[in-house]
Write a structure and sequence with these properties.
5 helices; alpha/beta; single chain; Rossmann fold
Length: 215
């Protein structure tokens, strides 16, 4: 597949957009879904992980992503950018369409290996975040929470938030994990790649150590 977790997200390319369930491509390889409440920092997190400023569209208008976007990764893996949820000004019918699209994809997609759920570290585990976790729980597949915008918190508050979220996630499943993440400071990238790589059986290559004296 891919040689190391560090190369997991590099070289991402746009593949296809699906507006409806019938538009979904045939499963061609493992898929990692990225979900999150509108304005939680999902697009910024994706762009940071793939090291591309404009791969996922970052908008100041919440709810801009209205479809499922597939991006191909090296080694046959796909990154799947799901519609942001929870924007109140979206028309009721469109919101219902998003919910059906999200829940059906998350619960029935055979090629989906796990979900990365982005939450604003200052406002984690909203009612809609918990609904997303509930939707996914029946699959038995792993979830990794990126507590985005963690640079907005002090170190102490960040640790406190992380521990609280981890404790709550353990109530759902043993394979639900969380970490602090900052797109602005590019913090937490290696940890995220390591966790997601493990889902795919990819191990980070050990950093080369300097030779000992006498070698």
């Amino acid at each position: 597949m891919v040689s190391s977790a560090m190369s997991l997200f590099r070289g991402a390319r746009f593949y296809i957009t699906a507006h409806h369930l019938t538009d979904l491509p045939a499963p061609l390889g493992p898929e990692i879904a990225f979900a999150g409440r509108s304005n939680a920092g999902k697009s910024s997190a994706i762009n940071t992980l793939v090291d591309h400023n404009r791969l996922a569209f970052v908008s100041k208008t919440p709810g801009r992503t209205q479809q499922i976007n597939f991006f191909s990764l090296p080694g046959g893996v796909f990154l799947v950018d799901l519609p942001g949820y929870g924007y109140a000004k979206v028309h009721r019918e469109l919101r219902a369409h998003w919910e059906q699209l999200l829940s059906t994809y998350l619960q029935t997609r055979s090629s989906l290996f796990g979900m990365v759920l982005i939450m604003d570290a200052r406002h984690p585990l909203t009612a809609l975040d918990c609904q997303m976790l509930d939707w996914f729980a029946s699959t038995g597949k792993p979830v990794h929470v990126l507590l985005s915008k963690s640079d907005k918190l002090s170190r102490q508050d960040g640790r406190k938030t992380l521990h609280a979220v981890q404790a709550r996630l353990r109530e759902y499943a043993d394979n639900y994990t969380a970490q602090l993440f900052s797109s602005l400071k590019k913090q937490g990238m290696e940890e995220a790649e390591e966790v997601i790589g493990a889902w795919l059986g990819v191990r980070r290559e050990d950093k080369k150590k300097p030779p000992a004296k006498g070698e």
